[in-house]
Amino acid sequence: MAKRSTLFIRIVEGKNLPMHFNLFMSSLRTATIWKTLSPFWGEEYNVHLPPSFHNVSFHVLDEDSLSRDDVIGKVSISKEALAAKPQGIDGWMNLTEIDPDEEVQGEIHLKVSVLGKGYAPKILRCHVFEARDLAKKDRNGASDPFVRVSYNGKVHETAVVKKSCYPRWNESFEFELDEASADTPLSVEVWDWDLVSKNDFLGRVLFNINRLQSAQQEEGWFRLGPDKPKHSQYEGTLGSLRLKLMLRDEMVLPSSHYQPLVELLCQSVGGNLPELMMLIDETTTAESRQEVATNLIKLFLGQGLVKEFLDVLFKLELDKTGEPNTLFRSNSLASKSMESFLKVAGMQYLHRLLGPTINRIFEEKKYVELDPNKVELKEAGCAGLHRVQTEADVIQQSAGHLQSYLFDLIHAIVQSAVYCPTSLCQTFRQLYQRVQERFPEKEYRVKYIAVTSFLCLRFISPAIMSPKLFHLREKHADARTSRTLLLLAKAIQTIGNLDTLACFSKEPWMVPLQPAIQQGIAQLKDFITRLVSCDDSEDLGLQARMSLQCGSMEKEGFLFLHRTKDKCMLMTSPFKKYFVTLGKDTLSYARTQHSKKSSFIPLPKIRAVEKVEEKSFGSANVMQIISEDNGQMETLYLDCKSVNELNQWLSALRKACIHNTDTMSSYHPGIYKGDRWSCCHQKDKADAGCDKTRHGVTLQEWYDPLDPDLESQLIFRHLIGVRQAMRYAGSPYEERLDGVRRFFKVLQDLQDAHQAVEEEAERSRNKNFLLELQT
Questions:
Q1: Cβ 427 vs Cβ 337: under 8 Å
Q2: What distance in Å separates the CA atoms of residue 768 and residue 771, rounded to the nearest whole number?
Q3: Most buried among 1, 17, 222, 480, by the most CB within 10 A?
Q4: Domain Ras-GAP, which positions (predicted)?
């Protein structure tokens, strides 16, 4: 049983913002948008967070090529504000000025006690142990922190710890408790000491004296809070961001609790209880359809029944469709489920299919335009020495470029029949046959369009227009490349519709591509005929194919590596470039992609995967992998080229090691240099660590392995939300079908189990509170 917090983030656009900037979170960084005051990103992320997180901040930066990026403003949303709107937050949010006294982070370890009994004067004692993850205020990537403890007009200060965000003081201070000033709090403030300028505020903790007198003692890690907010003179003038955020906190129960629900869902697609899937289809709203479709697809992939599930939806959709020209054109549950299936099971196929053509377009950066109203001769350049191109020259040249890209792409699609995943082939054949049965008297092209409406219009064409969203490129295309991709996607859509007349009547300037499009239509029909004629054998089976796709090779790429033993830092050994491969069981690396692996780390031996302080190597994008070998701790340092690549590797490794035992609860974010740790200045090389590990902070990726319990919980939460609508729609079946009655009972049992867990957690919290009072 575990609580999981997932934050969906869609960064849409901005307005009235400075030029050439990007948007930055601690885990994510968007592409830089140049020379515009109203940028559009359209980037989406799913971030798995620990349930203890407090807020999410988005910083807008002015990117500088030669110096550090300038922070323009931020948008900050608390966890409470996100939790208050379970349907999500979607709208424009004003940027606010960055106030240094509000930009605090980290925790401090304190023990506060009230000493003395009877009528003797009581003493208030504050023991300051250590702090961790403090804000970096100095140019060296650290701070010089000290603690100021004040009560009733008296002030004590600790010593200054130089160049550390993980200081240890171990000092105690005492105050005479004033019974008459019970409302005066004990204040513990952390400051960054500066020799020349004024000290920088790092955060504070306030203690209520009345509560302390009742409890006698409080000890633990306390989160540092900001100073009182100040009124900003720039409020409302720094621009705004349009964000869509949705926080999901899920209490995932053990698998046995979900088994009855999973069994009933499997029966609904196995032919024993078709009414159940019909009820889900009827009651799922447009707002939740995409999420429900994705969760159902993953659930049935794990059960090996995804073909049967899609087949049930195909039949439901065909029964409701009277006009073949509108078949699968709406965002129905069938359309959304097929779309999700293609993204989950066909992403590697898509990368192999589109990768070479997309990379070629990005590298060539040719000017391409067919619409006479949009031709810009300045952008097109000169045709030769002292000869400016005419509009006709530009269009003719553009048609040639597009035809070349289109020929390459159609050729790749035709050749892909031999490596298209068996699961996709069988699903398309199933769809092809169902449409043929439903409309036998209609023209033969309807069954082809049913396949191309998904393959071309909902999968290949969107990936061409937005390659970053389909993980084909790391960054969005510039304006010139975006226009080329859009025109190519239009051509693919026309081919997918198997109808050139409709396209050319709406956009006559596409006529120069007519020969290539007509040839593409003929080749696409042949391809579909081959695709739906695939062998009936299951070869590895759907579940095995998914595990191969998700787990055999999660990530690979060139990185700079530095390896040490027992964290003994040999600064004379530089980072070296290696090709790193994260496989199903090991992390291996070699000097080149195809050379023999020179070394590897078994994933079960990894104890922690964490970031490294910027000051350690002079780079903010270094991570460390701590593993155990024959009782000795070894550390591998990886230097990534960007913060996004860093977080992708952190996320992939943490998910690959999620079932590891004996993981570390604390670690050193610095390096052992000379005779001490650079982070906390401790001299013991075997010191346990000065910061807590973050095993649960990950990004959701398309290649993530299936998580049956989480998917079952998400489906259960949706079904509980529409239970009343399902009861109303299912009343004709409930009286005569035992399965439908059993379904509603299973939902009630699961809801009771969740309520019991929540009540037990509340009893545990109350018990701990009483124990603290007794202590």
A1: no
A2: 5
A3: 17
A4: 288-497
